[in-house]
Amino acid sequence: MVLKEGAIYEHVKTGKQYKLLILAKDVHTLEELVVYEALYDNTVSKTWVRSKEEFLGEAKSVDGTFHPRFKLID
User: The domain 8-72 belongs to what CATH superfamily?
Assistant: First the structure.
């Protein structure tokens, strides 16, 4: 899947929506990172970072099956 900056993605497990802000690289490892923002009220953090590999990986949905962790909805 090609990630799109500015696009809206939905988390498979929670159904919550996030806006992909920018793709980045770790300064030490050059690992590709995804910086994204929660589009819902969140008291923990509004901005999140995870590896591109993990963002594109699979997660267990509420019914116990595995699906892509995030799906493009916008």
Answer: DUF1653-like domain (2.30.30.320)
Length reported for the chain: 74
Tokens encoding 45: 């953090």
50: pLDDT strictly greater than 80: yes
pLDDT in tens, 14-26: 999 999 999 999 9
Residue with tokens 């996030």: 18
- In this structure, how many other beta carbons lie within 10 angstroms of the beta carbon of residue 9? 23
Mapping DSSP onto H, E and C, the string for the chain reads CCCCCCCEEEECCCCCEEEEEEEEECCCCCCEEEEEEECCCCCCCCEEEEEHHHHHCEEECCCCCEEECEEECC
